[in-house]
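Re: that chain you flagged

S.,

Sorry for the slow reply, it's been a week of failed gels. I finally had a moment to sit down with the sequence you sent. For the record, here it is as I used it:
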Amino acid sequence: MQLDSGKRKRFESILNQKEELKKGQSDIKDAIKTLASEMGVKTAVVNRILGLVEKERSKGGGIIADEREVVDTAGQIAS
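Prediction finished late last night. Pasting the structure tokens below so you have them in one place:
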């Protein structure tokens, strides 16, 4: 396998992008921890909220309403 300077630069670029991604993921994790602490909840709660919002935005609506209905039904059963 031969690496010319162009291919080597592309490898370096990919490696740099991966490092940036790792840093970005770490920053997001820290931001979630901070927000959860400020809200007095576990990080799982913040992650669940974020996940619902992401689904809601990607699907064009209805996800949060469906989730609310599921929670309301579970509450009725638990009562």
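What I noticed first: The chain has a mean pLDDT of 95.

Talk soon,
D.
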